Amino acid sequence: MALISLIQSESQVAAFPAATTMVDHLKNTYGSGVRAVVFYGSCLRLGTDENLILDFYVLVDNLRDAIKNPISATFGALLPPNVYYHECDFDGRVVRAKVAVMTLGGFAHGTAETCFASALWARFAQPATIVYANDDVACATVEYALARAVTTLLSKTAPLMAGPYAIEDLWTTAFQETYRAELRPELPSKAKALVNNQRDRFIRIGAAAIEMLGLDQTAEAKPDTGAVWAWRARRCWGRFLNVLRLIKAAFTFRGGLDYAAWKIERHTGVTVELTERDRAHPVLTGLRLLFRVKQRGGLN
Known about the structure:
By secondary structure, this protein is an alpha+beta fold.
């Protein structure tokens, strides 16, 4: 089956009720300019938000109309996305979400092969669901971007492989490289576990992408030197962008430090205790957390 058909089927899977309630909350918050809402991450994979936090991208026409704060909107355009923390009530409990806001056009660009930074095309080569689209054009734009995220990730990773190689190994290498390029608080084994836990999906999607790209995974090959250096450069650039985004998020992400501490402990086992003084100085605390987690082996 063609890659776009597989992505269309995957992206139309219905979300569970708590996630749908949060989507309604986000549409009300960001207004009529919302073009699409994309649901991804661990809650989507597990089908529950119990003891977890939902992950969404809200894609809009105009950041100033959606965010209302012109300064935040300006920085969101210069260094997308802006990230916010949201809560809403559902069935007598609180549902929590980490929400990235950017333009629909920016999202499409971020998954393209011309985009050097790996953050978007690495994240959305993984399963994602379009939980809202305001028209067919928006839906098709997101579907195409999701398919292109897969081809971008695999086309940039394939030259690193010593052939012949298995599709699972290609995906594992891809995620290992992108974690290293993003200051992700992930253990080295995370990429392999991610692929193994959804092995059938990654083989099916990967095979369609390989066919579309015309790659030959059975050929004898050595890693391409140019590709190796490109990923080294991408590591430097990606980490620089992540530091800038962390600093920006300190001013836009309400509850962001508590979220960061929860995320670090969940993914690395490194426990972070925050004080009120820490919360009063979010930028310095965020940088200190990065240094502490790195020292204790929590970053690749």
